[in-house]
Amino acid sequence: MNNSTSPTTATMATSMFSFTFQNVLAAVFVALLIIFALFGNIIVCASFYTFRDLRTICNYFIISLSASDILVALMAMPIWLILQLTAQELDSKVVGSQALELWSFVDILCGTASIMNLAAVSADRQLAITAPYSYAEHVTSKRAIVVICGVWSYALFIAALRFANIPNNGYFHLNVTLSFFVPLSFLLVMYARIFMVARDQAKRIGRTYAHEIKAAKTIAVVIGAFVICWLPFFVLVLGYAYNENFPVSMEVYKGIKWMEYLNSCLNPIIYCCLNRTYRRAFQRLFFRCMRRAHRDLEVDSTAMSLKGVTAVNYSSNGINETKMAEKKRKYLRSPLLKRSKEKANV
Q: Any idea what the Cα angle at residue 55 is, between residues 63 and 195, rounded to 5°?
């Protein structure tokens, strides 16, 4: 065994990382994104599971969207965090080529699933507003689940195509077209129809369908945030599709990726700010957790006090038993007891 290679290996591993103030600050920022993305989207899922008034068809797709954001936070962001501390640009020596492949695969999978879920939501809102009387008949929970399965199957298919050897950077063109521009065009058509119908029927509808219109506005803000956060990334992919030496600095690339991952934190904030039902659900869930924590604390304190009382009782009982035994011994040794025994024998 050659021990001379150990210092060299250690030196190479150390040289791969650069713990400058800028890199550490970037890593801390990504860590905060991971925490906020997990916390916010888990609250959305917990609220959906806890409160029945949130279990609507529209929110089925919102939960699917939150699932994609949680997947990004668990599988893609940690690798991006490690890469913030590297001295080289996306070097596979740091995290491994397989980890980089997984990172890219999850990015494409979750990005495609997110926009396809938004497309499904827009179709759901379009049917709820333009055909309110037949909506409940045509849109059921089972059909919504089938659509969600189709959305994730489509996203998985697009992400898996990156492992196919498509010539002339064909996958870049395919990815940008099928994962962004086609679903985005569908979204714009759906929402144009929604707001045209809502405007034309405003006088006849009155407040009856105000909830659906508010939900549509909330989803429109979610879509706007998605486009703002993801458009630079797909523009960059399109640039690489036409020119493999597309000029972009590492700082710009990092900024684009941060915007992409920031989107995973925004949706719960949008729901809380714009959707009264979600806002109330978040508050109720928070207070329920606080009451449960307070109740558990009271139970623990009560149990501790009961243990203390039991211990005191045991100790007092022990003292009483000792006193009684001592009195009994004194009585048995007393002269009065001996005289009574002698009289009895006589």
A: 75
Task: Let me know if 328 is exposed, middle or buried by CB neighbors in 10 A (0-12, 13-18, 19+).
Answer: exposed
Q: Which residues contact 181 (CB under 8 A, 6 or more apart)?
A: 234
Question: CA angle, corner 60, sides to 57 and 64, nearest 5?
Answer: 155
Tens of pLDDT along 316-334? Answer: 555 555 666 666 666 556 6
- Whether 83 contacts 95, CB under 8 Å: yes
User: Model pTM greater than 0.70?
Assistant: yes
**234 near 182, Cβ under 8 Å?**
no
Entry field: residues in the chain? 346
The pLDDT tens digits of the residues spanning 30-87 come to 999 999 999 999 999 998 988 888 888 888 988 998 998 899 889 888 888 888 887 5
CATH assignment, 17-282: 1.20.1070.10
Domain boundaries, the chain: 17-282, 313-346
User: Which residue in this structure is represented by tokens 């928070």?
Assistant: 286
